[in-house]
Specification:
Blueprint lengths: L3 E3 L2 E10 L2 E10 L7 E3 H4 L12 E6 L2 E15 L2 E11 L9 E3 L1 H7 L3 E2 L4 E2 L1
Parallel strand pairs: 3-8, 4-7
Antiparallel strand pairs: 1-2, 2-3, 2-6, 4-8, 5-6, 6-7, 9-10
Length: 124
Amino acid sequence: MKVRLKDGLPYVEVSLTYRGRQITFENVLLDTGSDGAIFSADRVLAIGLHLEPNDFIHRIRGIGGAEFVFTKPLDRLTLGPLSVTDFEIEVGAMDYGVDMDGIVGMDFMLQVGAKIDLAQLEIY
């Protein structure tokens, strides 16, 4: 799958399936510096993914600061030919000053054994 550079950062297209409903995001940051995957709360509402009373809420920290997120198990997360089932993501405001739908981190990339070819701008 092609990796697209935007402002010097790598972006990919990712599909999420939650309770049988699927959505595709074209503006997802591929981030080897992030240990997990996080998606915008506003954008995942389209497939009915929202905070529920029994969801676990916690605080995460990163280069962009700190925020509260909740976790949700997905049916599937797909990035081109790479796919995992029963995959847990974090959902938050993602108010980082950059327009993006989400971030795919090392948890996904390690689980699928992803290889990133920067010369060809591809992930497989």
